[in-house]
Design a protein that fits this description.
Layout lengths: L2 H41 L3 H15 L3 H12 L3 H11 L1 H13 L3 H9 L4 H34 L9 H9 L6 H30 L7
């Protein structure tokens, strides 16, 4: 069976796996973005605090993703839980680092001006600092998403959702007629989804970042 015939015969399952893959990555990126920005907001004013935040989230990336999922299985079981925890933790570093860089890069004169017209610290953060720090934060989100698209494939090891199941099934049946087709379908599917995600972020940037501060 050719690759195109395999896609035609298995398109329903592949679409289901692709949807689950996108859903898992998107939901984990939302959690990682919220947590990452919060960590950045709490720590960016302190030298040691920001260093601790970046070092702690960077340490996660030194753990092989397959090992991380394997260690979580005895604690939370198979399926969605180890996938969500692993992807969220791996997605933190670029968001945290870029949030800190972005917030530190805001012109102090603008913050002082906002303070001078009576804005509270919370209002300055929400209406001045975070909007100006948004371009580097969005870049961090894009980097995290690209990483998680690949790492999510490993979740199939723990019976997680996504296109990794195609890849693992193909590897497990190497030598069979459709083994290469399965691995190729899963791999190309992830690449296509990653490109679509990135295109969506480019569009989001154009819609949310004023032309004068685009990077």
């Amino acid at each position: 069976m050719s690759f195109w015939e395999y896609l035609a015969n298995r398109h329903q399952q592949l679409l289901t796996d692709a949807f689950q893959h996108v859903s898992a990555v998107f939901q984990c990126m939302v959690i990682a973005t919220v947590l990452g920005v919060l960590i950045g907001v709490v720590s960016y004013r302190s030298g040691w605090g920001s260093s601790l935040a970046i070092t702690s989230t960077a340490t996660v990336l030194t753990i092989p993703s397959l090992a991380a999922i394997g260690l979580l299985i005895p604690l939370v079981g198979l399926g969605v839980a180890p996938t969500v925890i692993t992807l969220t933790l791996y997605g933190l570093l670029p968001v945290v680092r870029n949030a800190i860089v972005g917030l530190r890069g805001v012109d102090p004169a603008l913050v002082d001006a906002a303070k001078g017209i009576g804005m509270s610290r919370t209002a300055r953060l929400l209406r001045v600092e975070l909007p100006l720090a948004w371009p580097p934060i969005l870049t961090g989100i894009r980097v995290s998403t690209q990483m998680l698209m690949g790492i999510a494939a490993i979740a199939a090891y723990a019976s997680g959702p996504g296109l990794g199941n195609e890849i693992f099934r193909g590897i497990a049946s190497l030598g069979s007629a459709n083994a290469i087709n399965q691995v190729l379908a899963g791999t190309l599917g992830i690449v296509v989804l990653a490109l679509l995600f990135d295109a969506a972020y480019v569009l989001l940037g154009r819609l949310t970042i004023p032309r004068g501060i685009r990077v």
